[in-house]
Amino acid sequence: MADQRLFYGNGDYYAFNRLFNHTVSHQKLYLTGVICFTVGLCISAIASSFSFMMGGRILQACGEWNFTSMAQVILLTIYPAKQQGSIMGWYGSAVGAAPVIAPTLAGILIDYFSWRMIFYISIVIMLFSFIFALFVFDDFFRYNCQKSLIYFLLF
Questions:
Q1: Is the distance from CB of 45 to CB of 55 less than 8 angstroms?
Q2: What is the pLDDT of residues 99-149, one digit of tens each?
């Protein structure tokens, strides 16, 4: 059931992405997601109550929505059709390994430091991601408004 919701969520993003890509560059969409995710991390790191931390985690989820779907769209766009299966396999392996490795690393951090350290390390990683995206990220797609609107309405 959760996988099905994730699939539908990504489908919504693909349609949203195709509709608005003629007005907003992918770099701006990605950077907006990074900012939203990082602000959520900061809120969670300084949270003094569960409700405050949950608000930060919700903000993180809104930012992460960009990463998951945008990564797949970008990978399928920059790689030729011959290599798309291979690259999506590598992407799937990384996404599949994260839920196995992350709890172990988080447990080690919590044992030796504090639970807040998880958020501090993530903030540093996201700041590097933001700086990297500013200088390296390129706008991959350009479709005209009519094609995007038709695709959005169909899907």
A1: no
A2: 899 999 999 999 999 999 999 999 999 999 888 888 877 655 544 344 444
